[in-house]
Amino acid sequence: MASSDSQSAPTTGANSSSASTPPSSGSGTGSSTNPSPFAHGVFLPNGANSDPPLPANDPTIGYKLNHFMLRIREPKRTMHFYIDLMGMRTVFTLNVGPFTIYYLGYPQTEVHRADVPKFGLDTAMNLQSTLGLLELYHVHGSEKQPDGYYQTGNSPPNLGFGHLGFTVPDVKGALDRLKAEGVEVVKDLGEVGLRSIPISEWENERGVGQEEVGTATEIHKEYKKVFSKIAFVRDPDGYIVELVPQNVDPLDP
């Protein structure tokens, strides 16, 4: 059930029976003031604690979230952003015919950071077991299309995909460097609120993501503390990139 004080500090749900109760199979909309099945502002490791354990013979053992793919229009400018500005390095490229694939990743060792060709070869040889890769997908001819040819998921009414999240040691330093390179800032440090999440006016007009101060629909004050330390920028194709500090503790913002 929702906290009686909508702005009380969040707690973990480990010892809270109400917080750990799985949502029902019904509408799951809670009350009119708390449409979520979970208590307002309560950080819940493992969610509702309703996930089943994974036995050794489970058919999904070995599954990994390996990569994410984005369609791009102009590889040169996109590679500049992710390689020169975000520090990724090329794992491999492949011209398939109608399109070219660019796989990027982060070197994780001093050896790989010093010897990028070795990083590319080693990672390509272990591609299926590597986590956190980015696939950039350039369909030949798309570079001749106008801006907006590809939807990024954050412009009404074509909402869907949200952002790519990168953790960085120093968000301010990273943001200042990106600003100096002319990168568009979507959300600066210190900003909080619906528009910076972003939840659009278009959604609000349709009764989606509305916030009412003093109720369980208000953005929780402790989440605001965490969110104020996060920044969003826009990559050359319009996709939102999130910069998250590596030293943020969600339990002690």
UniProtKB/TrEMBL annotation:
Lineage of producing organism: Eukaryota, Fungi, Dikarya, Ascomycota, Pezizomycotina
Family annotation (InterPro entries): Glyas_Bleomycin-R_OHBP_Dase, Glyas_Fos-R_dOase_dom, VOC_core
The protein's name: VOC domain-containing protein
Residue span of region Disordered: 1-55
Low complexity: bias regions: 8-37
Alphabetical list of PANTHER family matching this protein: LACTOYLGLUTATHIONE LYASE GLYOXALASE I, LYASE (GLO1), PUTATIVE (AFU_ORTHOLOGUE AFUA_2G13550)-RELATED
Pfam families tied to this protein: Glyoxalase (PF00903)
SUPFAM superfamilies: Glyoxalase/Bleomycin resistance protein/Dihydroxybiphenyl dioxygenase
Domain VOC, chain residue ranges per copy: 64-246
